[in-house]
Every structure is written in structure tokens, then in C-alpha cells.
Amino acid sequence: MSHADSQTVSISLLDKEFSFNCPADAEAELLASADLLNEKMRDIRKSGKVLGLERIAVMAALNLAHELLQSRQEVNSNVEQRIRHLGNKIDAALQNSSNALNTDETP
Fold first, then answer.
1. What is the model's pTM?
2. Is the pLDDT of residue 1 over 70?
């Protein structure tokens, strides 16, 4: 990524400003990610159980990673279920086709 293709974007996390270089076409995604992270960090700070910006950031990152892993697991489970369903449909169609051929061959 050349300097001409990137831009500096400022984000705020728990009222602290951070600046990042990112590709010009990725600014919206970076800002949306920062908003989500800031929301998670605020929720953690509100709970009062975790103190310090770094600890709150790590806890928010762990929570987001956990949510991502759960989501991936659900997607994989749904895909496996759909594949089994399609396999059953194919087996049934092949069985029906085989039965139809056997019926046609009977004199």
C-alpha cells in the first residue's frame, strides 16, 4: 500500500483519540469497527469490574473474539446441516430414478 493510497483516520475509544493509516476504501469499515469496539469497551467500563484502558481493551477484544468464534461455529453447523439435507435429497432422487428404471425394465 503506497502512501497515496492511504489516509489517516482518527477514532475515539473511551474518549481517547487514536490515529491510524488505512486504505482509502477501508475508512468506513475501520470507523464501524471502532464504533463496535468503543461500545463494548463502554459496556465493560460501566460494569465496574474491570479498570484501566488496557484491561478494558483486552477484555473487549476477548469478548469480540469469543462472539466471532461462536458465530463461525453456528455458520459451520448450518452448512453441515444443509449439506446433509442436500445429500439426502440426492439419495432420494437417485433411489426414485433407479426405481423408475427398474419398473420400466419389467415386462
1. 0.69
2. no
